[in-house]
Amino acid sequence: xxxxxxxxxxxxxxxxxxxxxxxxxxxxxxxxxxxxxxxxxxxxxxxxxxxxxxxxxxxxxxxxxxxxxxxxxxxxxx
Amino acid sequence: xxxxxxxxxxxxxxxxxxxxxxxxxxxxxxxxxxxxxxxxxxxxxxxxxxxxxxxxxxxxxxxxxxxxxxxxxxxxxxxxxxxxxxxxxxxxxxxxxxxxxxxxxxxxxxxxxxxxxxxxxxxxxxxxxxxxxxxxxxxxxxxxxxxxxxxxxxxxxxxxxxxxxxxxxxxxxxxxxxxxxxxxxxxxxxxxxxxxxxxxxxxxxxxxxxxxxxxxxxxxxxxxxxxxxxxxxxxxxxxxxxxxxxxx
Lengths: 78, 248
Hints:
Chain A: InterPro entries: ACP, ACP-like_sf, PP-bd_ACP, Ppantetheine_attach_site. Chain A: Belongs to the acyl carrier protein (ACP) family. The structure holds 2 protein chains of 2 kinds. Helix content of chain A is 59%, strand content 0%. By secondary structure, chain A is mainly alpha-helical. Chain A has one domain (4-75): ACP-like (Non-ribosomal Peptide Synthetase Peptidyl Carrier Protein, Chain A, Orthogonal Bundle). By secondary structure, chain B is of the alpha/beta class. Helix content of chain B is 48%, strand content 15%. Chain B has a 7-stranded parallel sheet, sandwiched between helices. The chains are: A mainly alpha, B alpha/beta. At the A-B interface, α2 of A face α4 of B.
């Protein structure tokens, strides 16, 4: 079973077309990974599908880095 | 069969008037149609029946488009039935005409909520699906009065002008995802509403129209088919004026 980090990394690599090595916990989607605001919205949509959860707009706005996404998801699934 | 074979279209306010003609025309081009209605269930089922008679698929779905939950249920029903939403036609609209000085706050609110907020809510609700599909067409029915103004319709005109602005912004936001958003501004179209106008009002209206006649709902519906089809794949953020030359 892949870890949350591995699954998030895969979604980010697929969606943003970045190299796996760039997807670090502290990496910001917009500043470090070249995402525009619509990319981030789509990324959140894909994370919702991947982890079968609903992420509210309010929560989605707080997800700026890979680490934010991971801790949000871990907080929800555990 | 047609230009829209296998596509799925959601048409709001499709039980009567222009919406009905749009639903039928899309179906005639091979589209599956979700016929939204708010009150006229009987009329909506007649439209569904007519569509089935010409060999396309359709369902009627009741929804109040000024309510986000109701809108979500409408779009869910469409996806459940047909698996996609390729085309959204924001057509539903109401009038509560009054002079500005006499217009009540609730007359303003009702019209803005249905005719403008409704477009926002329906657009927002299909965007997720269309982004996933990497394709979609959104066609908003505005009005000539949204461009020219019209005494006695401050609420309606504000909403219809708002729809044009919303069309341009949505077009810009979603262009990179291949979701094209355009508006149509019909002029005087022969519907139940214009059929009841007194003869003198009708004839004075006609003097302002270069083509000197009212349009038919089908004239608008054919423009919708164009905007929904591959023929319009290089246009977004535009407003098509289907008005016999009244505004130019």
